[in-house]
Amino acid sequence: MDLLGITALYIFLYVPILWICTYPVYWLNKKTKSKVNPFLMRLELQFLGSSLSSLVRVLLGGIYIIFFGLLYCIVFFYTLMLTGNFIFSWFGI
After folding, report:
1. pTM
2. Residues with Cβ < 8 Å from 60, sequence gap 6 or more?
3. CB contact set of 91 (below 8 Å; sequence gap of 6+)
4. pLDDT of 28-83, one tens digit each?
5. CA angle in degrees (0–180, nearest 5) for 8-11-12
6. How far apart (Å, rounded) are the C-alpha atoms in residues 60 and 64?
7. Residue 10 contacts residue 87 (beta carbons within 8 Å)
8. Is residue 61 a contact partner of residue 40, using CB atoms and an 8 Å limit?
9. How far apart are CA 46 and CA 37, in angstroms?
């Protein structure tokens, strides 16, 4: 099989496997996103002051975004590696 065939096989295997692996992360992100903002807005941090309280809220929101960003990246690259190793082992590449 030539390079075009291997690439097509890689795409047709990779995309469904990526979707299967990414969907649970997407579902979790969708379910928690609507709960994070009200939680951050209700967070009572009056003992820190208003500016420090806002900074803590921004940091907690940033941690949420970084967590799901890293989770998406991990799923993407591990799916890429697993699919690549599987296909390349077929053709001895």
Report:
1. 0.70
2. 40, 43
3. 1, 6
4. 888 888 887 777 777 776 666 777 777 877 888 888 889 989 999 999 998 888 88
5. 85
6. 6
7. yes
8. yes
9. 18
Q: Sign of the CA dihedral 59, 23, 87, 82?
A: positive
C-beta of residue 40 within 8 angstroms of C-beta of residue 57: yes
Q: How far apart are CA 37 and CA 61, in angstroms?
A: 8
Structure-token pair, residue 80? 């890429």
Which residue is listed with tokens 């299967």?
20
Residue 92 φ/ψ, nearest 5 degrees: 60, 35
Task: List the Cα angle 70/8/74 in 5-degree steps.
Answer: 10
Tokens encoding 64: 């949420």
